[in-house]
What we know:
Strand content: 15-25%
Strand order of the largest sheet: 5-4-3-6-7
Shape: globular
Number of strands: 7
Radius of gyration: 17 Å
Order of helices and strands: EHEHEHEHEHEHE
Distance between the termini: 36 Å
Amino acid sequence: MKFFIDTANVEDIKKANDMGVICGICVSAHLTQVYMRNMLYNLCAEMRINMNNINNSNKSSRAVACITGASSGIGREMAKLLSKKGYDLILVSRNTKEMLLLSQQLSTRCEIITCDLSDENACIKLGRTLAKKDIYIFINNAGFGDLGSFDKTSLNKELSMINVNIKATHILTKYMVKAFKKRNRGYIMNVASSAGLLPGGPYMS
Length: 205
């Protein structure tokens, strides 16, 4: 079983792959959709995920991928890409309407789970639910940031951001790692902003 780490350095990816670690590339939400899609195709190549090794001739046997923050941005593009590769999907987000619209554009089956990941109890409930499902790839993609002077930004928003970006990722990863270890297979990808690897700009600390 292999889990992969976030990195923006291609050399790090190659080194990690040589050590048997599957690596993900951090991409920014500010990238255009076309560029983002190209990055994701490259990512799947680095992951060495080959859908030809999975029998998709029978729809009931398709592998399942779960994506949080799937209603927009990187999560939405990942859903499109993985659907094209033959994965059935579990889409997780607060925005039920956007997930429904997305599911209508995809060729594979989609299960929609509406969840507010800033709510710790909701995350725990989601983790328990997902751990029981036969998921092959789990992508922690939900997250957001803020910009502004520290004394003027919203404390409530910042606490919500900490809950989504840190606590939700920790909780869901914990449940999925345990589930994957029992099955002796599975991939986990934690998506992060490339801003975290760069010197902080104004109002971004």
